[in-house]
Amino acid sequence: MAAGFVLGLNAKAYRNTGSYASPTWVEMTNIKDLSLELSTGEADVSTRGSSWELMASTLFKANVTFNMIWDPADATFAAVLAAFLARSVFEVLVLDGSRTVAGNQGLRAECNVFSATRNEPLTGALEAAVTLKPTRTTNGAPTWFTAA
Question: Is the pTM of this model over 0.85?
Answer without folding.
Answer: yes
